């Protein structure tokens, strides 16, 4: 009997210790690495913010006693899943911000509702500057799509960091090599266009192109851009209009070819590929990403964060990342970003109802 | 053999002290994470990415990859011991693993799973190393129509798992189908059954449902008999009996093949090879009635299949830059953050890197086997912990797991709700595995069906014009007819038997 009790007790202690270790692994595991000196840079949900909070308060005691913002760790809410574009961008910027602010910036993923869950969370959070969010273009598309009541006027805008133009990509053996040939063919034959989902930015890009050039298409939605590109490589669909980064490896493998990009300038990775504007179609659609705060956050906090983001966006690491991903680094500060977001919101509010999604 | 030389070079890098250490850390974390229901390898990988920022890229990926396949080893443990699958793929393991544990043979189940996982994992890594690129080409032929046919096949296989009562099984299956409808319609984006709740926009999360249906309901059920002191079965042995070795090894062989092939197709999840393997074993077995009561092949086959899947699922990533599953997508993100672009150019531009990782996967699998075999015995003893101590701990772990999915209490609530549903289902003898399996399958199935219809412009017969989808659909129809026929035959003989009495 005694043996059993000891064994049980041992197992219980092990499990509890394991849970405790699991909780604090975020803060203790990173002490061996990195130059940024931040403690709790992986926000495990098992560990509550008290763990990293206590670390941060120790740090602030050690650093300086002036009650300047930020005084403790900042949470960066990413409304999409870990590993995706939004998440990768946020993590690199967060790391850069930490170096500048000397406080941890913890990335927390809150997924669901095409970004709605995370964005709603930011909207409803306290506007003391300790909860910020990453928003992709989807914020300006939510209300027109009927997904939620979210719109730019409900947030404060810190800074934009990326621009991801759409690109027209087809299989390597397709019978058209230029945009003109493509449009000609598309006008006479209904092509299948893949995208990352109904109402996604790439679907909207295709619709905008179709409207401007006068062709219709069959829309085939996929669970993200990657499956769409896979189907394209297998020849199951005719064309995708997703970002350059997502088709880059397919092009390098010699399976896909890029016909045009929907931006103002040519893509630096593919200088031979024309823009749609050069070909005569006034279409400029790009995904973009930036950082936001709950409405009513004081301007000086916004400015401090904007500066930190600017430094992070201009770091070599971010530059390398965007270059490899086929994204463009584009920094727009505060008011300019807000204006841009509002104009995008207007644009999508007019375009999306014509797409017949509902 | 150029590849062999490069592989040896890879071993040289992978066997450095630091990389060995990172590999060990990776697989350990992966295994532990697999044990905890709810906290999957995806979350763990994502959480540990920041730690890898300061590390050498090779070491970073070695560690993260370790988490990925280590997770598959760990999921078995909770499935066998407490009938709570760690992830959707482990649901299949519960079916025969848990009965084995109740017979005191938990050690055997875990041991066989460990051995099978090792063999499956290693062979699929060999495949990745040597024939990967060629196979990736073939895998591209799987478009939406082929997907639909594959899912249809899987669904028909689920029917074969119905157990004694076809009606009850069908109830479970349809319940799963209905649940999978919740969320956004994949084509039009229309909201179905969401009742205005943002949390339901993505539908129900499979992990919360699984944990609730299996884990919480098990606790609720166990609480009924908690105060009866029964004889707890003794835990004997770690390895199968002599006469069981041969069928076990055969099951492992088949599981490897199934898992490897499934992994090549981008977009499938590890549930599918596990399901196919279990059904296959059951169909082939001479005595079908052993399944569900502790047939060792029912554990060996699926466990091998899902580890073999892990290895070959990396082939689309390495050769084409396409992630097959959410965890791999995170791995892709990690690759990119460290400045490497997976794809066809990866083998050419960074051969050292690729071969070092492949070598480390061999090592990782070996480490896992060494860790798991003795540990299996220790884990098995957990089954001896008295329920009143075990249940609170399980509750704690499952709640944490459910919360960790989205940092939200909504998932915890869903889990509890399904726990209650599962409790009633158990009382009514409605099998639960079909619910989970149909949810997984039908989401993929609906998407691929609508995609295929769009591509075919409504022409249903086009399915039969494509070789792969035609084969699979015909196969499904054949299996379906067979199963129904067999069921009717059983009923007839059962009825006859009753009349005799």
Mean pLDDT of chain A: 78
Number of helices of chain A: 12
Basic shape of chain A: globular
Radius of gyration of chain A: 23 Å
Biased composition (Low complexity) (chain A): 27-36, 43-60
InterPro entries (chain A): BUG (IPR005064), Bug_dom1 (IPR042100)
Region (Disordered) (chain A): 27-68
Family (chain A): Belongs to the UPF0065 (bug) family.
Task: Please explain how this structure is put together.
The complex is a heterodimer of chains A (358) and B (501). Chain A folds into two domains: 164 residues, D-Maltodextrin-Binding Protein, domain 2 (3-Layer(aba) Sandwich), CATH 3.40.190.150; 118 residues, Periplasmic binding protein-like II (D-Maltodextrin-Binding Protein, domain 2), CATH 3.40.190. Chain A is globular. The termini of chain A are far apart. By secondary structure, chain A is of the alpha/beta class. Chain A is built from twelve helices and eleven strands. With 501 residues, chain B is mainly alpha-helical. Chain B has one domain. Chain B is built from 19 helices and two strands. A two-stranded antiparallel ribbon of chain B has the order 1-2. In chain B, helix 3 packs antiparallel against helix 4 and helix 8 crosses helix 18. The interface between A and B is large, with 77 and 76 residues. Chain A: Belongs to the UPF0065 (bug) family.
């Amino acid at each position: 009997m005694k043996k059993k009790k000891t064994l049980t007790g041992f197992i219980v202690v092990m499990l509890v210790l394991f849970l405790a270790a699991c909780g604090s692994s975020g803060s203790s595991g990173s002490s061996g690495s990195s130059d940024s000196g931040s403690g709790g840079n992986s926000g495990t949900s098992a560990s509550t913010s008290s763990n990293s909070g206590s670390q941060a308060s120790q740090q602030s005691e050690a650093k300086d006693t002036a009650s300047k913002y930020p005084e403790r760790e900042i949470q960066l809410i990413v409304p999409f899943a870990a590993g995706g574009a939004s998440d990768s961008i946020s993590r690199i910027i967060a790391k850069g911000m930490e170096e500048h602010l000397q406080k941890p910036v913890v990335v927390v993923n809150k997924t669901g509702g095409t970004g709605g869950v995370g964005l709603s969370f930011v909207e409803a959070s306290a506007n003391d500057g300790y909860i910020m969010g990453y928003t992709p273009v989807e914020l300006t598309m939510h209300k027109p799509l009927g997904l939620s009541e979210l719109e730019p006027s409900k947030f404060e805008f810190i800074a934009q960091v990326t621009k991801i133009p759409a690109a027209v990509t087809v299989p390597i053996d397709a019978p058209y090599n230029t945009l003109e040939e493509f449009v000609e063919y598309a006008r006479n034959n209904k092509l299948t266009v893949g995208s990352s989902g109904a109402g996604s930015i790439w679907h909207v890009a295709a619709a905008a192109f179709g409207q401007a050039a006068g062709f219709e298409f069959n829309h085939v939605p996929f669970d993200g851009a990657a499956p769409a590109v896979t189907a394209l490589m297998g020849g199951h669909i005719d064309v995708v209009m997703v970002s350059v980064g997502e088709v880059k490896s397919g092009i390098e493998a010699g399976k896909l070819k890029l016909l045009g990009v929907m931006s103002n300038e040519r893509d630096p990775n593919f200088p031979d590929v024309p823009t749609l504007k050069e070909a005569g179609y006034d279409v400029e659609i790009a995904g973009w990403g930036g950082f936001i705060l709950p409405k009513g956050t004081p301007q000086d906090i916004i400015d401090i964060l904007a500066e930190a983001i600017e430094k992070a966006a201009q770091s070599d690491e971010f530059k390398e990342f965007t270059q490899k991903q086929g994204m463009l680094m584009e920094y727009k500060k505060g008011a300019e970003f807000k204006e841009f977001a509002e104009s995008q919101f207007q644009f999508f509010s007019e375009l999306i109802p014509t797409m017949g999604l509902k | 053999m150029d590849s062999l030389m490069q592989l040896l070079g890879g071993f040289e890098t992978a066997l450095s002290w630091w990389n060995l250490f990172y590999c060990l850390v990776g697989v350990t974390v992966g295994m532990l994470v697999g044990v905890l229901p709810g906290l999957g390898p995806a979350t763990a990988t994502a959480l540990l990415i920041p730690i890898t920022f300061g590390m050498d890229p090779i070491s970073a990926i070695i560690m993260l990859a370790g988490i990925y396949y280590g997770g598959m080893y760990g999921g078995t443990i909770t499935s066998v011991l407490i009938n709570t699958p760690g992830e959707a793929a482990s649901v299949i393991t519960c079916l025969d693993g848990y009965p084995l544990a109740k017979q005191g043979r938990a050690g055997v189940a875990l041991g066989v799973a460990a051995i099978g996982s090792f063999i499956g994992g290693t062979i699929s890594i060999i495949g990745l190393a040597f024939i990967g690129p060629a196979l990736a080409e073939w895998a591209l032929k799987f478009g939406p129509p082929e997907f639909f046919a594959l899912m249809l096949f899987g669904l028909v296989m689920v029917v074969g798992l119905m157990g004694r009562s076809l009606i009850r099984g069908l109830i479970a299956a349809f319940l799963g189908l209905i649940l999978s409808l919740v969320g956004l319609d994949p084509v039009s984006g229309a909201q179905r059954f969401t009742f205005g709740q943002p949390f339901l926009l993505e539908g129900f999360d499979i992990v919360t449902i699984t944990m609730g249906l299996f884990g919480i309901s098990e606790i609720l059920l166990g609480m009924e008999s908690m105060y009866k002191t029964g004889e707890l079965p003794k835990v004997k042995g770690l390895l199968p009996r002599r006469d069981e070795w041969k069928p076990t090894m055969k099951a492992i062989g088949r599981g490897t093949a199934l898992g490897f092939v499934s992994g090549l197709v981008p977009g499938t999840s590890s549930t599918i090879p596990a399901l196919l393997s279990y059904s296959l074993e059951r169909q082939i077995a001479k005595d079908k009635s052993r399944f569900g009561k502790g047939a060792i092949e029912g554990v060996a086959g699926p466990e091998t299949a899902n580890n073999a899947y892990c290895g070959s699922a990396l082939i689309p990533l390495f050769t084409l830059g396409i992630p097959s599953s959410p965890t791999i997508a995170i791995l892709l993100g990690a690759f990119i953050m460290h400045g490497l672009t997976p794809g066809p150019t990866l083998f050419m531009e960074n051969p050292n890197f690729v071969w070092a990782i492949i070598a480390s996967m061999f090592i990782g699998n070996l480490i896992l086997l060494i860790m798991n075999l003795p540990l299996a015995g220790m884990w098995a003893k957990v089954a001896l912990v008295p329920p009143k101590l075990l249940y609170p701990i399980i509750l704690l772990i499952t709640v944490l797991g459910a919360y960790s999915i989205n940092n939200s209490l909504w998932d915890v609530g869903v889990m509890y709700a399904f726990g209650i549903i599962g409790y009633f289902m158990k009382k009514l003898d409605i099998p639960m595995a079909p619910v989970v399996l149909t949810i997984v399958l039908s989401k993929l199935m609906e998407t691929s069906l609508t995609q295929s219809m769009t591509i075919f412009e409504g022409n249903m017969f086009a399915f039969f014009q494509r070789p792969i989808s035609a084969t699979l659909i015909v196969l499904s129809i054949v299996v379906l007819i067979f199963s129904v026929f067999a069921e009717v035959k059983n009923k007839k003989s059962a009825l006859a038997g009753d009349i005799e009495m």
